Amino acid sequence: MALRFFREYKVVVAGGERVGKSSFVYRFAPGYGIGMYDPRTIAIVDDEVALFDILDTAAQEEYSALRRQYMRDLEGMIIMYSITSRESFKETENFWKQLLCVKNKAYSPMLLVGNKSDRHGERQVSAQEGMALAKQFGCGFLEASAKEGCNVERAFHEIVREIRRFDSNVTTLSPLPETYQGSSSIFSKGILLSLLKVRKDER
Ligand SMILES: Nc1nc2c(ncn2[C@@H]2O[C@H](COP(=O)(O)OP(=O)(O)OP(=O)(O)O)[C@@H](O)[C@H]2O)c(=O)[nH]1
Ligand SMILES: [Mg+2]
């Protein structure tokens, strides 16, 4: 399997207060190197290398200019609620509406995630309700647990697939340096992270 592209995906995790956004991002992108936390990571999604540039938002940013700014810039949004909070489930609709309003589009790549699926006993929102809401949003749906690591990677891979489906303009993909093309077995994550570091230093 040839891996030919090195593409950055701007993904935002949004949702109500304390639903687990930071835990979710940290579980997928625990950062690397010394110094400030860097919420970026690399993964091979299907046969393409994906560099995730993830923004973990704060719930208090509601209606702020910052929120509009990140919605304008993002390529994919994970809209999160906690299955233990009906309130957070209701709030997801605001994020959905605002995203479409800011993008001025009928659809933008997104994924609905019901987090804290490990807390069965405190469930306030059923999986069926989650699925029905995702259908209304026209997007995919997953229940996940940042605590147990369940479906976290899958959620980030799914949002990349959705961005790819939405934006099939392959000219935005930049080829990998020739030396890094080849079979996945020799495609070491260490090499990719070094590449990422070089890119970061270039900024
Ligand atoms: N049981 C369980 N607890 C979780 C899970 N994800 C997050 N938590 C807990 O929920 C609390 C809030 O998690 P955060 O990751 O800070 O949530 P957040 O959405 O980033 O919170 P704000 O940024 O303050 O809005 C913490 O105590 C986490 O340990 C999960 O999947 N399962
Ligand atoms: Mg947080």
TrEMBL record:
Q: Name one GO biological process term.
A: signal transduction
Xref: CDD domains: Ras
The answer, when asked if Nucleus is one of the entry's keywords, is no
Name the InterPro entries for this protein.
Answer: P-loop_NTPase (IPR027417), Small_GTP-bd (IPR005225), Small_GTPase (IPR001806), Small_GTPase_Ras-type (IPR020849)
Instruction: Give UniProt keywords alphabetically.
Output: GTP-binding, Hydrolase, Nucleotide-binding
Species whose genome carries this gene = Clohesyomyces aquaticus
| GO molecular function term, any single one | GTPase activity
Q: Does the keyword Nuclease apply?
A: no
Cite the SUPFAM superfamilies for this sequence: P-loop containing nucleoside triphosphate hydrolases (SSF52540)
Identify this protein by name: p-loop containing nucleoside triphosphate hydrolase protein
Pfam families in UniProt: Ras
NCBIfam families assigned: small_GTP
Of the GO CC terms on this record, one is: membrane
Lineage in the entry?
A: Eukaryota, Fungi, Dikarya, Ascomycota, Pezizomycotina
State the PROSITE patterns in the record: RAB, RAS
